[in-house]
Structures are given as C-alpha cells and as structure tokens.
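subagent[fold] <- orchestrator: predict structure for attached chain, return tokens only, no commentary.
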Amino acid sequence: MQPLAALFLIAFCTLSTGARGQDAVKNTVTTEQVRAELMAHAPDGVDPGKTVWVGLQLVHQPLWHTYWKNSGDSGLATSLTWTLPAGVLAGDIAWPLPVKIPIGNLANYGYEGSVLLPVPLTITPDFKPSLLNPELEVKLQASWLVCKLECVPQDGEFVLRLPVKGSTAINGAIFDAAFKAQPQALNEPASMTVENNVLKVSVSGLPASLRGKTLDFFPETPEIIETAAQWQQSWQGALWTAAVPLSSHRSASPEVMPLVLTGQVGSARLGFVSQARISGSWPAPIALAPLGEAAAAQYPPGSSAPANLPSSLWLALLGALLGGMILNLMPCVFPVLAIKVVGFARHGSNQHRQRVGGLAYSAGVVLSFVALGALMLLLRSAGEQLGWGFQLQSPAVVAALAALFTVIGLNLAGLFEFGQFVPSRVALLEAKNPSVDAFLSGILAAVIASPCTAPFMGASLGLALALPAWQALAIFASLGLGMALPYLAASWSPALARKLPRPGAWMATFRHAMAFPMFATVVWLLWVLGQQSGIDGAAALLALLLSLALVIWALGLQGRSRLVMTTLSVATLAFLMASIGQNIIKPLENANPAANSALWQPWAPGKVDQALAAGAPVFVDFTAAWCVTCQYNKKTTLANADLLADFAARKVTLLRADWTRRDPAITAALAQLGRNGVPVYVLYQAGRAPVVLSEILSVNEVRSALAEL
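subagent[fold] -> orchestrator:
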C-alpha cells in the first residue's frame, strides 16, 4: 500500500465544511421558562485597577427554577464562560443565597423568581482599548437547566459593549440587591465531625438576632448529606449545632467543606458562609460504587492523589490494557486491521522490516490515545463537558473520516495509486521508510477505535477523570498499548510470522476485497451524520463524496481529457461545498432519535429522580449513533421481546440518553456514575445504589438485575 501521508492530505484537504455561521449575539435571551439578560455595573468607568461587575439575570416563570453551585439531589448549576479582551480577568460567580426546593422525597438547591449571578471583572494595565472604538466588549456563553416537574437544558450567547470613559450604572439597584443577598463571612470557622453516618456541625459567631431561630444549612460540596432528610438543630447560647444524616450515595470524603447558613429576621433573609475542617472518620459509602466512582470519592476534584499508586489505579491500568486488546475485535477497527494483514504478508520474508513496522504502528496507536486523552482532559479543565469519543460528536469530523475512508476504499479497489499524485522522490522515500506508513496506520486505527468502548474500558476511563494528569495519561497509554499489543507480538514472534500466508497473487484479490469494509465504514459514518444533521446533511455528504471520487478518477486520466475533466470535477466539488456543505454541520432541529420508540422516553436531567419519586424503577441507556457497541446492544439485547416484557411487568421506566451530539448534561450524568464514554447501562431504584451493567450487554445480565428489584 502506498503512503498513508498522501491519503490524509487528499482526504482532509479536499473535504472541508468550514465553520458554522454564528447567529447575531445580543444581551437578552427569552424562552418559555426564563428571561436571561447580561447586565453590567461600572459606576466609575473602565480603567486599570478598577473592578467592573457583570452578571446574568435569570427571571423565571412561576414554579420554574434554576440551580445553585451545589444543585442538591438533582439538577445542574448554571455555567458561565467568558470571552474577554487581553488584560481583563473574570472572577468566580458571587452566588446569592439559595433556597431549598422540595421535589417529592428529594430536595434541590436553587433559585426561583428573579436572580442575578454577579461576576467581578478585574481591569489590569494590560487592557488596551482601541483608540477609534474605546469600549470593553464582554461576551458570555451561558448554559442553565430550568426545571418544574420537567427539566429543560438551555443556553444562550450574550454580548455587552461598555464605554471605557464614563459610567454604566443603569443596573445599579439590581446589583446592589444581589450584593445584599450574598452570604457574609463569619469571623470564626465552623466545626464539623463525622460520627456514625451523621455530620455534626457547630457554628459560633452568628448575630444575636438569629439566636433561637431555625436555620437552613447548605453544604457547597455536593452529594455529602441527605438533602431532603429530617435533621436536628439546636442553640446552646451563642453556639448553633446540627446533626445532619450523611448520604448513602456519598461521592466524596472531603477534609474541608464550605457551608452556607441562612435565617429569617423579620422581612430580611440573612446568610453566612464559613469553612470547616472535618474531623472524625468517614464511613465507607453504603453504595457499592463502580471503580471510577470510588476513585472520584477517594480523590475529589481539586485534591491530590498520594504519591504511591493506589491498587485501584493498577486495576484501571490492567482494565485499560485488556479493553484495548478487545478493541481489535470491534467492527469499527476491522477495516484498518485488514490493511495491516496485507502489510504483514508483504513483509513476511523481511523480519527486520516487520519488527520496525510493528514498533512504528504501536507508537502511532499509543501516542494517538495519549494525545486524544490529553486533549479531552485539557478541554475539560477549560470547562468543556466532554467524554471519550468526543471527536465523533462533531459532524465535521464524521464527514472528514467518511472522506478519508472513501479515499482508502477507492485506492484498495484499484481506481488509483498514490504514486500518481506524489513526486517520485516522495514515493522513493516511502519505500525506504515504510515505518512512516505503519505509524500513520496506527494513528488511523486509534482515531477509528476511540468511539468504541470495550469491556473493562468504562471504569478505567471513568477513573482517569479523577486522577492527576500523569496518572490519567498512563491509563490512556495503557489502552493504546493493549490495542497495539497483538500486532506488536505478531511482528516480533517468528513462530507467529511463519503462520502468516506468503506473498502471492492472492494479495491483489484480498486488497480489492478490503475496499468493501472501507465503504461499509463510510455507510456507517453516513448513518451517524444522519443522526446528527438529518437527511439533508447525509445527502450533502453523499454528493460531496461522489464529487471527491470524480476528482480522483479525473486525476488518473491521461492526455487532454485529464485537464478538462479535472477542471470540471474540481469546479463541481467546489460548487457543492459552497452550496450544500453547510448542511453537513447544520444541527438537526426538534428531533430526538430516542423518542422514535413508544417504549423508550428521551432522557433529561431530573427525569430519573421524578420517576423514582413516583415509585417506578428506571433503566437508562446512555448511547450514541457513532458507538457501534451501543447499536449492537440496542438491536439485540434491548430489543429482546422477553426482556421488554420483564420491563413492562415490573413497570420500569425506560429512558434513552442520546449522546450523538455534544450534551453537557449527559456528560455530567456519566461523570456521576464514574464513566466518561458510552455505552453505559444503569438500573435505578429508590433507596438503592444505581446498578451499572456491562458494556457488552446480555439479556441474562439485565434480567438478573431486574430480579433483585
């Protein structure tokens, strides 16, 4: 096979869909549930050393609410992502005092009515406004979850332009009210002790006007206490004490925890914030957490793991290694492995070249998995809600891969040779350095395999998010090593090499036959794109791939016809890209594949809690169109008539969380389960820990879990 470098160049340079056009941004977004507005307060102007306040005001319709930094038993905190000029720094949200919102036997922390989430902007001397247009431009990308009985994830883009000279105090009264709703810091730290599944809290230094009154307690760390449980509080002179039950599904065991106390004095609601160091011994959570969830409890975000490797990390490394080996059996990887079979046969008589190729291929696989893992961790640290396989949540990436596999298929079918399109020096260089081709094959295999989740992988990848960066990258490297290991072993084992078929005429037939798995992969990618961008997007991609094939065919012609046909085909491709290319990345409006079945309901934040509060067990299928394992399980186990009858007999609510396109709410739900990729199958029952089932799902496994309800 000719150099894959030329393959990458042709595929990715020929098909480019461009960036999606942005809608005009403004400072107000209105939905049926919320009116969101970006506001500013700069009474002294915008000068270096000054603090400018900006904030997102959410005005809720009656009975609707959004969430505090700790949302309670369900929900999702409002997220603000700022785009600011150089020299302007955004601080954290100054969260106003929350209220407790009961929902059945659960409780959430959040806001009703109208609330402003203020954020300070620090203007440094590095801020240099334009002389022609002296303004401070503030851009905000916000996302919030608004709930009543149902929950609706929403987002919006906002922009404000503040004059550098002069004041912006039109919203002064709103910001002043928000500042008054801030909790005040107590001079004395609170005290917390863990005793017999109870968190005992002692707070002194509260004002005398609150003594004897009932206070509300809000821990800033989520999933520590039973939010809706009854708890005891009392006053001993100026000392306020409380005994709060710990959550049986506790996800962390912090050493220090901030807390907010609120109390009513006349018409005024007072709030105070303190930070307590927790003494005593945390009990083991009652719930049997998955590996990733246990690690998250052991090393909560912001904490550091001990220097020695915990046993759970060794198990995760082993799980990643085994999962990587199993990836080779996944249908999404088969086309690339078919190419490697041809390479083995070609170099069967040259042991040195075979070993170098094995090392190069392994290096490509391992480095690609590490690079993908590092990119995911980097984007998550920047606030992006991403999980494993995130690249195939982009229609542009799906389209580019479809183009890549189309080119590979056309090459294997014999329509063209890469030597036709590259200078003779490049072809000669590749012949002398086949390791470059093997390295690129490894990259290609990793890119195609990454959306798949094999057995043993889920818990290992979930654990990676709770570990320091170098330990997380070690897990990704172990995953890549596991995938490369069978090929590496075959390339270094003379006994295995002798069992491989010798070069011969069969190779040409085998090569042509391998074009069909490539085209089958293109069909799968087209189906994935159809789930993301609809029938128009899939049709647009088909038209572009047809034009791409026409260009490649024209480049292989001889004589005058080559120039004429190449010009016409390139012009056709360019015209189609300009006219219909945007359909490929256009989002599919008002469509949810999960709703196609009468038995399955689309998952939404808070929906599991609502069903549990009504007394119904819940089964959730976290899936994606680009996940081959998900589709296999959906067509076999989850379509089994006996299993569906069991679900119906036990009145199980069936929810399907479709992660085909990026969805921060689903990403957050997966993280709570100690996972960051799909498939994930979870059975919920009120009062019990969620049961996370295997990635390769069987009817017997699900029925056994149902039998324990």
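orchestrator: received. Logging for downstream: The longest strand covers residues 135-147. The longest helix spans residues 515-555.
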